[in-house]
Amino acid sequence: MIAGVSKSGYYKWLKRQENPTDKDLDDQSIVTKILECQQDPDINWSYGYPRVKTWLKKTYGLNVNHKRIYRLMKGNGIKAKIRKNKWKHFGRKEKYAVSENHLNREFSATRPNEKWVTGKTYLLFNGKKIYLSTILDLYSNEIISYKTSERNDLKLIADKVKVAVKKEM
């Protein structure tokens, strides 16, 4: 046994090279059709085996199992090009800061304007998000200031705090 191939296996392979079976011929015809599909300028090597299956069915009326197409593409080194993502991710737009826990779960106050808490949420109006940000005084549980905006950004918070400080001064 040389190169891990038995004598009988080698002669069987040699015979098949000279006299291919009907299945081998059929596979070869499918491979040429797959190559034709991938070389189409509109497709430009972008189809994987599921879309190639659909293309063969639509173009030639061939109903070929997707596993067979996968095997033939893999065996002949036919691969789809991986397209880059259209949507670019640029990361965070604004810097953010994490504050210390000053309240330490003590949500009661002994005088007005001693402790303020803030919160943000969004509301849907006609399929559009409107962000609502509020400031609550823990002494009276009264909303001191609120602000709405179409954008959830730092400006929403800053404007809300400015209004609250003006109101309480």
What does this structure look like?
With 169 residues, the chain is α+β, with helices and mostly antiparallel strands. Helices cover 40% and strands 17% of the residues. It has helices spanning 7-18, 22-39, 49-60, 66-75, 154-168, and strands spanning 116-125, 128-137, 142-149. The longest helix is centred in the N-terminal third of the chain and has 18 residues, at 22-39.
Q: Taking Cα atoms only, what radius of gyration do you get, to the nearest Å?
A: 34 Å
* Element order: H for helix, E for strand: HHHHEEEH
Q: Helical residue percent? A: 25-40%
Count of individual beta strands: 3
Stretches where pLDDT falls below 50 for ≥5 residues? Answer: none
What is the topology, as strand order, of the major beta sheet? 1-2-3
Kindly state the mean pLDDT as a whole number? Answer: 87
